[in-house]
Specification:
With 370 residues, the protein is an alpha/beta fold. The chain is built from 14 helices and 15 strands. It has helices at residues 29-42, 67-80, 100-106, 123-129, 135-148, 168-179, 196-202, 211-227, 246-252, 279-283, 296-308, 316-323, 325-340, 361-368, and strands at residues 2-8, 52-59, 88-93, 113-119, 153-159, 183-188, 231-234, 237-239, 256-260, 265-267, 271-275, 289-293, 314-315, 345-347, 350-352. The strands form 3 sheets. Strands 7-8-6-5-4-3-2-1-9 form a 9-stranded mixed beta sheet, sandwiched between helices. Strands 10-11-12 form a 3-stranded antiparallel beta sheet, with no helix packed on it. Strand 14 and strand 15 form a beta hairpin. Helix 6 (168-179) packs parallel to helix 8 (211-227) and helix 12 (316-323) runs antiparallel to helix 13 (325-340). The longest helix is centred in the middle third of the chain and has 17 residues, at 211-227.
Length: 370
């Protein structure tokens, strides 16, 4: 099986913290969409013998693309690939794009899941992040999707933001719970060097939260969501029963995928390929790629990294079978200090972090790397 990803690298406004590839020149959007159709045809053999299980439109801001154009891309993919097993078709959206008319047209398409970049339900925090929507618009966008019949909605929240007091995060989580969405992704605000936030830090205009506050924010989000019935199944992701994100889960379990669009990545099992063309170059048909071949060591390290970010953890038996008994024994030795500290737990051949310790996952993962 495999998945399809379509990258829409356009934004009306650049968020303070965002380090993804994106452009503000919306006039390029129609040419990029046509370029995606060309790339689909040119790369039709990439996953020709695989059944597609999910389709995802990410960005950037995919909700800047008209629903009929989104559906045209989906149908083009259906003509090229075996999409009979597709269960989930997700579009990332900004709340202020989801007008009554847009939602009505979107509901006529194959899209059955929305992922909303809400980030916060506090207008002060939204302004700091340079988001386009207000808290009220965020609530109304979810309500609009419900009225249209959507029953699989995910929202993004950000925590670890300094300077807004102690109550805003709790109130944002409470608002998310009141909306009853099926899935919530909660991310710690990260300072990336090539962003407006990175510049603010360098100029002394913003000071990131202390580690103790990060831990308190994380614990607050986790406790509130778990008490409300959400399963904490990956470091940053929570879902109601049966509503884990199928597309993202495929990434974390090593499923192959084809990425279409400027900046998109693809993975074919032993090779990774990504488009390095700008949106302008891509729209003109000047499409260039870079690639890398994964070694056995790369595969092991990726398995460790993605697995320890999930509640399932790593399977020592699988590691011994695929990578050799010596690697499994090496990891067992490295795990001892974490097991003694109760940062890692063991059940049979499985080593995993309790969800309360997920914030330490990077350190554990690094210690397990080959």
């Amino acid at each position: 099986m495999a998945t399809l990803y379509f990258h829409i690298p356009f934004c009306k406004r650049i968020c303070t913290y965002c380090d993804f590839y994106k452009v503000g020149a919306l006039g390029l959007l129609p040419k990029v969409v046509e370029g995606m159709h060309r790339e689909l045809d040119e790369r039709a053999n990439y996953l020709s013998d695989r059944r597609i299980t999910s389709v995802y439109f990410g960005g950037g801001t995919p909700s800047l693309v008209a629903p009929k154009e989104i559906e045209r891309i989906i149908q083009h993919a259906r003509n090229l690939f075996d999409c009979s097993a597709v269960e989930e078709v997700t579009v990332e959206a900004n709340p202020d794009d989801l007008t009554e008319e847009y939602v009505e047209e979107l509901h006529k398409t194959s899209v059955n899941r929305l992922s909303l970049g809400i980030q916060s339900f506090d207008d002060r925090v939204l302004q700091f992040m340079n988001r386009r929507h207000s808290a009220t618009e965020a609530v109304e966008s979810v309500q609009r999707l419900r009225r249209a019949g959507y029953d699989n909605i995910s929202i993004d929240l950000i925590f670890g933001v300094a300077g807004f007091g102690d109550s805003w995060l709790r109130e944002s989580v409470e608002e998310a719970l009141a909306l009853g969405v099926e899935h919530i992704s909660a991310y710690h605000l990260t300072v990336e060097e090539r962003t407006r936030l990175g510049l603010m830090v360098r100029k002394g205009e913003y000071k990131p939260v202390e580690e103790e506050q990060s831990e308190r924010d994380y614990a607050l989000v986790e406790s509130m969501l778990q008490r409300a019935g959400y399963e904490h199944y990956e470091v940053s992701n929570y879902a109601l029963e049966g509503r884990r994100a199928k597309h993202n889960s495929a990434y974390w379990t090593g499923v192959e995928y084809l990425g279409i669009g400027p900046g998109a990545h693809s993975f074919s099992g032993d090779d990774r390929r990504w488009c390095i063309s700008t949106a302008k170059e891509y729209g003109q048909g000047d499409v260039c790629f870079e690639s890398e071949s994964l070694t056995k060591r790369d595969h092991l390290n990726e398995y460790v990294m993605t697995s320890l970010r999930r509640v399932e953890g790593i399977n020592l038996g699988y590691i011994a079978q695929r990578f050799g008994r010596a690697e499994a024994e090496r990891i067992e030795r490295a795990a001892k200090v974490w097991l003694d500290a109760k940062t890692v737990i063991r059940q049979g051949d499985r080593l995993a972090l309790p969800t309360s310790k997920f914030m330490l996952s990077d350190a554990v993962i690094e210690s397990f790397f080959a």
